[in-house]
Amino acid sequence: MFTIVEKELLAPGIHKLQVQAPLVAAKAKAGNFVMVRVHAGGERVPFTIAGHDPKRGTITLVVQEAGKSTKAIGMLSVGDVLLDVVGPLGTATPIEPVQRLVAVCGGIGVAPTLPLLRAFRDKGTQILTIMGARTRDLFILREEVESVSHEVIYVTDDGSSGAKGLVTDALTELLEEGRKFDQAVAIGPARMMQATCKVTEYYGIPTIVSLNAIMVDGTGMCGACRVTVGGETKFTCVEGPDFDGHKVDFEELILRQAFYREEESRITVESQHGGEDCQCHSS
Ligand SMILES: Cc1cc2nc3c(=O)[nH]c(=O)nc-3n(C[C@H](O)[C@H](O)[C@H](O)COP(=O)(O)OP(=O)(O)OC[C@H]3O[C@@H](n4cnc5c(N)ncnc54)[C@H](O)[C@@H]3O)c2cc1C
Ligand code: FES
190-202 and 250-257 helices cross at what angle (nearest 10)? Predict the structure, then answer.
């Protein structure tokens, strides 16, 4: 049983869970994710393994409420169980020893960035992290990011914390000032990763991105998560989710992410009222 042993609200609609999953915790590496099913009949949803503790047998998941399944997870408490936690899935990110890394992360993208930062730090890399959010209350995992980074720059859309602007503004400013980096990591919404990659490509900085493609089985069987990288079709769930950002066809990814939006919003509304989980029977 995959029992929730700790739960913390990080920001409105964003939860940090410690989940008992000893076999996953024993094998997890930076870049891996799990497929979670909350209850029988539910869909499988992918979450990055944001941390793992093999001794305790737990993994850390950071879950942002987006639709039916993530909202169901948000309603669980300590002691409740998740029906399935399958993993670790995906290809672990190869961590080359580099001297200077710049990590650019936005919103919930901080969670998948953390394991990469820890892995680079363990190789002795100097890390500068640029964290972006719409407003200061939406920053998450600040302490954890500060503990693995040598420098952190905060950026908000509304200027409520750090500089006002976008993460790409802060990155461009640093590079224009002459700061040098051997490697970049960019994780967040697809448009943010795309914009970051444009900047890093111009400055010739190799960039790892983590693609949040729509997934169904998570095991390479259904093809739902296919993306184009360097002109070749790749399955994000087995060959990713981390890829060379300069080779990713982001326009295609963004189009495919929107593919089921209408159905998803319908399911979310139905599940709140009149759907299979509805208790009111009045619709
Ligand atoms: C490899 C990977 C790792 C991920 N890690 C995390 C994580 O650590 N924490 C976290 O909160 N979320 C993560 N996601 C996104 C998460 O899986 C989706 O938010 C979730 O599947 C939405 O399910 P739902 O039923 O709640 O919402 P749905 O009703 O299915 O969707 C609601 C909204 O979320 C969007 N959405 C659906 N699936 C995805 C997806 N795969 N990626 C991005 N947006 C999606 C839909 O387009 C829609 O707008 C990850 C996705 C991938 C592919
Ligand atoms: S999710 Fe089915 S092939 Fe990747």
Answer: 180
